[in-house]
């Protein structure tokens, strides 16, 4: 069978559906009806958001359309408050591992599209995956996301082998403890194979929820050209047992206001269908320049920094229990501004070229195998230091996932005080490991002071001694101490 026809039968089933859960006209109607909200309208929505509950589309539309500087500031303040209430003072770190730039698709914004002649195509061998992993571990990474183009060489069995290789690779400093995946849509039985080998979150970004724009960006005869096959991939992931799902929009392809509504409708769909379990994370990358890819420079719907900040706060307010990922596509200055408004995960020390960890020390050095441009090319150590300077704890923790707290279990945890009681000590433990095994002197100094500050805050807690003792055990050489 021709590879591009692989899912033709399954795709045809979706064609029979009368409609999907994204109603473009309804979204625009809701946005138009909210077009000039009063201060009272906005404050009414903020009052509800304060309760840490998911907003309804009409309410999110009011926040999106708000142009009033005073209440926009109030939105920022509440987003900040919710972020710290739900996720506490910590920021989880990861780095991507690009396994292949081979791809049969022709997404107009992407450097990997098959008609881009300047890309050198390569799929890593398992030995090369192990090499990349070793470099990542030696730089201090504990969590990764494996990324693949869609091609005959990167089907689910290759994904399984690469994930296994990552988990089996060890150095004197330990191992990668959580591997997530960003891949093309799969069938439920294929997702189940990934679940079986202990995958964390599976991300499939919709890119754009707007049907016509989706059609334009992803030519019809390509595999990615099927909107609904992609839209329902998280349903199939759930059916295959992967209950940590990552949604995403590639901002800049269509009007950001519509896309935020799309993310919310997707969340509502999943929550309704899967007993309250919505997405584990939402990613909101903006298009950055991709080599020999004109569309990535000429965006009709380019999102300004100001609107970007607004959309981050609105996502935080609309879906308070969903993790939010801000990648190194954004420059440091932008990340510094939006992280306090709701971001719970960032990547650092990122290289996105295929084989780039072994070949280069920094991002953007392998033009013929990089999908797009990285704007925050600071090292992991630099970013750890910057985050410590804000008083937040950089966390490399993977305890929840390894204790099976995913999907519904994780949602219960997120909605309790669990994050404060468990995640903060675990963040401190993993930061301590980082300090001892990898940090430069300056970073170690400030990171130790962050740990001390947070330990002091736990003085009255019944588990204070346990945390203090855990830190001592790590200092004495123990690793992977969990609370
Ligand atoms: N090939 C798989 C697919 O498309 O489903 C895996 C995803 S791709 C390797 C990772 C993500 O990169 C895409 O989902 C897209 O959102 C993002 N991306 C593609 N081109 C980009 C660009 N020029 N700037 C920023 N992000 C981009
Ligand atoms: Fe291929 Fe994904 Fe790039 Fe599209 S976004 S061309 S599917 S790698």
Summarize the structure.
With about 475 residues, the protein is an alpha/beta fold. The chain is about 45% helix and about 10% strand. The chain has 21 helices and eleven strands.
SSE blueprint and pairings:
Elements (H helix, E strand, L loop, with lengths): L7 H8 L8 H10 L5 H11 L7 H9 L3 H19 L2 E9 L27 H14 L3 E5 L8 H13 L1 E2 L2 E2 L2 E5 L5 H9 L5 E2 L7 H7 L9 H5 L1 H7 L5 E4 L7 H18 L7 E3 L21 H14 L4 E4 L5 H7 L6 E3 L8 H4 L20 H10 L3 E3 L3 H4 L4 H8 L3 H20 L3 H17 L6 H12 L8
Parallel strand pairs: 1-2, 1-10, 1-11, 2-5, 5-6, 6-7, 7-8, 8-9, 9-10
Antiparallel strand pairs: 3-4
The structure holds S-adenosylmethionine and iron/sulfur cluster.
Structural description of this entry:
The protein has 21 helices and eleven strands. It is globular. Helix 5 (69-87) crosses helix 13, helix 7 (156-168) packs parallel to helix 8 (188-196) and helix 12 (256-273) packs parallel to helix 13 (305-318). It has helices at 8-15, 24-33, 39-49, 57-65, 69-87, 126-139, 156-168, 188-196, 211-217, 227-231, 233-239, 256-273, 305-318, 332-338, 356-359, 380-389, 399-402, 407-414, 418-437, 441-457, 464-475; strands at residues 90-98, 143-147, 170-171, 174-175, 178-182, 202-203, 245-248, 281-283, 323-326, 345-347, 393-395. With 483 residues, the protein is an alpha/beta fold. Helix content is 47%, strand content 9%. It has an eight-stranded parallel barrel with strand order 1-2-5-6-7-8-9-10, surrounded by four helices. A two-stranded antiparallel ribbon has the order 3-4. The N and C termini lie far apart (50 Å). It has three domains: 3-24 and 88-415, TIM Barrel (Alpha-Beta Barrel), CATH 3.20.20.70; 26-79, no CATH class; 420-475, no CATH class. Iron/sulfur cluster binds next to loops.
């Amino acid at each position: 069978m021709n590879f591009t026809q692989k899912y033709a039968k399954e795709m045809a089933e979706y064609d029979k559906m009368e409609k999907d859960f994204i109603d473009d006209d309804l979204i625009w109607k809701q946005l138009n009806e909210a077009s000039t909200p009063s201060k009272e309208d906005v404050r009414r929505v903020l009052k509800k958001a304060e309760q840490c509950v998911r907003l309804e589309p009409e309410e999110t539309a009011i926040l999106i359309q708000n142009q009033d500087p005073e209440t926009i500031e109030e939105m920022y303040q509440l987003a900040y408050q919710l972020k710290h209430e739900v996720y506490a003072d910590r920021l989880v770190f990861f780095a991507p591992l690009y396994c292949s730039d081979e791809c049969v698709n022709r997404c107009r914004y992407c450097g990997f599209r098959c008609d881009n002649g300047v890309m050198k195509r390569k799929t890593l061998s398992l030995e090369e995956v192990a090499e990349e992993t070793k470099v990542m571990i030696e730089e201090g990474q504990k969590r990764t996301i494996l990324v693949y183009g869609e091609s005959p060489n990167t089907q689910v069995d290759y994904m399984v082998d690469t994930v296994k290789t990552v988990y089996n690779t060890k150095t004197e400093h330990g191992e990668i403890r959580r591997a997530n995946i960003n891949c093309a849509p799969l069938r439920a039985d294929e997702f189940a194979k990934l679940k079986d080998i202990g995958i964390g979150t599976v991300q499939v970004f919709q890119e754009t929820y707007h049907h016509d724009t989706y059609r334009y960006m992803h030519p019809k005869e390509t595999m990615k050209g099927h909107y609904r096959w992609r839209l329902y991939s998280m349903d199939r992931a759930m059916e295959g047992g992967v209950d940590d799902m990552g949604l995403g929009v590639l901002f800049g392809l269509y009007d950001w206001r519509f896309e935020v509504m799309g993310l919310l409708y997707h969340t509502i769909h999943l929550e309704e269908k899967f007993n309250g379990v919505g997405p584990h994370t939402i990613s909101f990358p903006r298009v950055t320049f991709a080599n020999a890819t004109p569309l990535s420079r000429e965006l009709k719907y380019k999102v300004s920094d100001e609107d970007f900040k607004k959309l981050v706060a609105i996502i935080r307010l609309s879906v308070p229990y969903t993790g939010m990922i801000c990648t190194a596509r954004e420059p440091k200055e932008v990340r510094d501004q939006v992280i306090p408004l709701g971001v719970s995960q960032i990547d650092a020390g990122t290289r996105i070229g295929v084989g780039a960890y072994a070949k280069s020390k920094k991002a953007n050095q392998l033009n013929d195998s990089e999908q797009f441009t990285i704007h925050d090319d600071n090292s992991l150590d630099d970013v750890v230091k910057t985050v410590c300077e804000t008083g937040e704890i950089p966390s490399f923790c993977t305890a929840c996932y390894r204790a099976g707290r995913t999907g519904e279990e994780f949602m219960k945890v997120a909605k309790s005080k669990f994050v404060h009681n468990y995640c903060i000590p675990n963040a401190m433990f993993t930061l301590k490991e980082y300090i001892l095994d990898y940090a430069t002197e300056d970073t170690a100094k400030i990171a130790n002071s962050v740990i001390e500050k947070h330990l002091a805050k736990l003085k009255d807690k019944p588990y204070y001694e346990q945390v203090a003792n855990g830190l001592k055990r790590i200092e004495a050489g123990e690793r992977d101490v969990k609370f």
